[in-house]
Amino acid sequence: xxxxxxxxxxxxxxxxxxxxxxxxxxxxxxxxxxxxxxxxxxxxxxxxxxxxxxxxxxxxxxxxxxxxxxxxxxxxxxxxxxxxxxxxxxxxxxxxxxxxxxxxxxxxxxxxxxxxxxxxxxxxxxxxxxxxxxxxxxxxxxxxxxxxxxxxxxxxxxxxxxxxxxxxxxxxxxxxxxxxxxxxxxxxxxxxxxxxxxxxxxxxxxxxxxxxxxxxxxxxxxxxxxxxxxxxxxxxxxxxxxxxxxxxxxxxxxxxxxxxxxxxxxxxxxxxxxxxxxxxxxxxxxxxxxxxxxxxxxxxxxxxxxxxxxxxxxxxxxxxxxxxxxxxxxxxxxxxxxxxxxxxxxxxxxxxxxxxxxxxxxxxxxxxx
Length: 369
Known about the structure:
Blueprint: E1 8-11, H1 14-24, E2 29-33, H2 36-40, H3 43-53, E3 57-61, H4 70-79, E4 85-90, H5 92-107, E5 116-117, E6 127-131, E7 143-147, E8 154-158, E9 166-169, H6 179-198, H7 204-226, H8 231-250, H9 255-267, H10 271-286, H11 290-301, H12 308-319, H13 334-342, H14 356-367
Parallel strand pairs: 1-9, 2-3, 2-4, 4-6, 5-8, 6-9
Antiparallel strand pairs: 7-8
Helix pairs in contact: 1-3, 4-5, 6-7, 6-8, 6-10, 7-8, 9-10, 9-13, 10-12, 10-14, 13-14
């Protein structure tokens, strides 16, 4: 990843923090980007009250959908005409939609124009992020993931200005997640920590972030699944997710994400389910490299386990993660899935080279369990 920047992190209630954080960034009129679920939970109203109490003029775009596409980014940009910046309240889809809207409202065109890093010629509008899930880490990343409207292929679009200028972490906002959503997003964050720890662009700094993130996430996911009201555990999950996001920003991901994306695009497998399902098989594949195997062993030791792949499977069992077959994935689609996985950007950062043949083996292992 390219920027190396980190937004200012504010931990505590959005009621007392958000308005002052936005004012301190020089923003006076913002687009509040959110989704129907966040609105129904009351979080959007809390954010708006905090902003307006500080003297910020607020417009609202509340039509964000999961796995946002270029069409969503265009709609967000249309709603943002004339504002100073964005406040994104929600999961990764809300934060990514705000980033996409910022690309288009300042630079025009479509998100396909910005694949890769640094293709925006004009500065983006500032974004303040308020994550309501402990999952994507988008609140500390300079990339947005926007899907193509037709193929649903995820486009990674990066710019220095896509990094939020500030993030407000409030664990109270994550309590309203369902058990299923808590499981899906928590497992996604765990996969982020594991893949960034071993990717071929890892550094000492990114590895340290990944290790700290994994310890927090793997320890506290089971706690919040059993006791959803445990705010201390929720806080640690939110912090772990943020640290995993920083680890990605400082390094990258790998084959679990590359193989997961076609499952989501073709069959609608939730992202957290897809990456978690693929990860144990990717761990075993990558463990042929002794240096990578040592990192996996060290990660597992942090939570008292001998093997990391088994630890991930234990977490999946507790989270009651559905099989791929539940979503209609069948063995006769393996060749096409493998071909699509081999074209995913993240695959090139896997510590062992992966190609169509390797991905086909991974899918076959999953579906033959």
